[in-house]
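Let's practice the habit of predicting before peeking. Look at the sequence and jot down your guess about where helices and strands might fall. Then scroll down.
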Amino acid sequence: MALRVLLLTQWFDPEPTIKGLAFARELVRQGHTVEVLTGFPNYPLGSLYPGYRLRVLQREDIDGIRVNRVLLYPSHDQSPVRRAFNYASFALSSLLFGLMVARRADVIYAYHPPLSVGVVAVLLRRLCRRPVVYDIQDMWPDTLRATGMIHSERLLRAVAKLCGWVYRGVDQIVVLSPGFRRILEQRGVPPGKVEMIYNWADETSLHAAGGRLPEGFPPPGRFRIVFAGNMGRAQALDAVLAAAAILQERGSNVTFVMIGGGVEVARLRSIAAERALGNVTFLEPVPMTEIGVVLRSAEALLVHLRRDPLFTVTIPSKTQAYMAVGRPLLLAVEGDAAELVTASGSGVLATPEDATSLADAAQRLACIPRDELEQMGDRAARYYSQHLSIARGTEKFAELFTRLARGHAR
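Done guessing? Here is the structure:
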């Protein structure tokens, strides 16, 4: 059954996002028609990407996919007020324009975060009478508390109530891990309303031909462990710098390469400079089409999150990306992500926010013979292909969309 799918998401290419253009293209490849309702790209730095300027509406056509960009206030800094205005402005614009495009769809797919997108999805469902699949990538209000974005317990309780309203108002919820499903069921969401579909990586970008290593990337000879992505509070990267200090004192040949942006970059650079960490290199973000070259050039790839109950049920998106390129992982995340790496035999585990544990794990990787490291990377790629690929995940979404569309038609 060929479907018309509306993707409602505040984040879309060229912004780094999991369920973006690659998802839309794969749905089209599998025989469906896709339209996108999104904002102007500004994540993660909070400033518009080159080639874009704010306007009420901008339409693009990408490989037959209509992309509608609506007005928003660009911001992604540490100010809760500006972040809230960013979310609210997109919600208002997407609701108004969504009333015109949602009726063309058989099913609406809504991507969370932020929660405001879920509110829009519920309103469009009621006003346009279209079924909604709500994909939860962050567990609110838990994430807001864990990252320190909101400290007021009263406001966090209000967010929790709004989450409950959204959960009741959508037709189906998709989560990224078994732990997320358990949490929703504990909060009263019927088990039959929750589907677990693992995230995938942007395979097209990761395996893009060409590209080159960014200037400043350490040459061969050292054991290069790369962290690529957002550097925010949730990543708790002070522990990585502390581990680097331990390794430097030991005379280890391990070096950490930190690539990306985020609110913590300036502070982390300052700490590394103060401690004279010669085994830590910070590099600017690189385009997604070039990041695969960087990841494949590393000896190992790092995933790190704060030691928080929330993150035991989270599988960071870079886990799948790292596995897809076939490199060994150094994973410092407890819970579902650790179980995934253990099941695949694709890496070494460390305790999050424990500098000694991180240093020991990094050194353990550095002591593994090259052929065994390659085998570890091969296991990662094979597990990804069999269980986590975009083709496999999109098939599951398409089955879900079809079931809802048929039920709605009746």
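How did you do? Residues 206-387 form a domain with the Rossmann fold fold (CATH 3.40.50.2000).
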